Structure to design on (104 residues):
């Protein structure tokens, strides 16, 4: 395991936005303490999304970090070529989802 306590979700969006689809406020971190407030503010998908949209992804990752507190998830864009390498190197090129405010 390269990063045994990390889940990497690489997609189109830069990360999770508080104000989607305006995309002016990227959330660098979501933890269990802020989850309810943030979930209420996350918008839906702008098109057809068979994966359930960003809200579903965030909920699923929050469920996992609730179950496994040492786990972290990172949602980031694969459209920027360096992001995957950065994520594999342990950086957070989008939005980090973790159980604690301290995170990693």
């Amino acid at each position: 395991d390269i990063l045994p306590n990390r889940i990497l979700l690489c997609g189109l969006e830069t990360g999770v936005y508080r104000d989607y689809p305006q995309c002016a406020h990227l959330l660098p971190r979501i933890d269990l303490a802020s989850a309810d407030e943030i979930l209420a503010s996350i918008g839906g998908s702008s098109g057809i999304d068979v994966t359930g949209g960003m809200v579903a992804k965030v909920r699923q990752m929050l469920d996992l970090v609730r179950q496994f507190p040492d786990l972290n998830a990172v949602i980031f864009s694969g459209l920027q070529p360096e992001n995957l390498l950065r994520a594999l190197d342990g950086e957070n090129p989008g939005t980090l989802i973790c159980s604690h405010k301290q995170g990693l």
